[in-house]
């Protein structure tokens, strides 16, 4: 039996175009699973109950806040994309690769998984510990692909701060989860169907 030699492992930077579809999805779901695990552990270390955090509120106020914030973000994003050159808002092609050829059901699944995992960590655990401002800085930094340009970085920070704000206003994690889901879902559909027309 051969011994495993860690020195033979080579790490190299790759672009999104060098990843196969399977590798891209594996990376997406693995990072979301890690995000979820960190979020759950962090919430538990804070002495809080994850299930209580995820209880649906009795009234539908959170849905109005979530859908309203998502609509505002989408209007701003579409306005920016109309007047800002593509190069200034480039994410390296990641979103295009994730959503371009995905079936509708898979775009829905991706949007749902990402919204639950990221909001549990960022709004559920991190914001509870350090507040919405610092949470938004970390959220923007985690979305590394946007850091090359100030417009998407500022937009991601602003969206994150807004998600934190609507959580404070509603008192439930479901408002930012719904907003995050709708933003990702609609942007995913826009990428998917815009590409189909070309």
Briefly say what this structure is.
The chain has 198 residues and is an all-alpha fold. The chain has 7 helices and no strands.
Account of the 3D structure:
The chain is an all-alpha fold. Helix content is 72%, strand content 0%. It is built from seven helices and no strands. The chain has helices at residues 21-45, 50-53, 61-83, 94-99, 104-142, 150-170, 174-197. α5 crosses α6 (150-170). The longest helix is centred in the middle third of the chain and has 39 residues, at 104-142. The protein starts with 20 loop residues before the first helix and ends with a helix.
Write the layout of secondary structure elements.
Blueprint: H1 21-45, H2 50-53, H3 61-83, H4 94-99, H5 104-142, H6 150-170, H7 174-197
Helix pairs in contact: 1-5, 3-6, 3-7, 5-6, 5-7, 6-7
Uncertain segments of ≥5 residues (pLDDT<50)?
A: none
Strand content: under 5%
Mean pLDDT: 89
N→C terminal distance: 53 Å
Number of distinct beta strands: 0
What is the 3D shape?
Answer: globular
SSE-based structural type: mainly alpha
**Percent range of helical residues:** over 70%
Give the H and E element order: HHHHHHH
Nearest-angstrom radius of gyration? 18 Å
Number of helices: 7
The main pleated sheet reads as: none
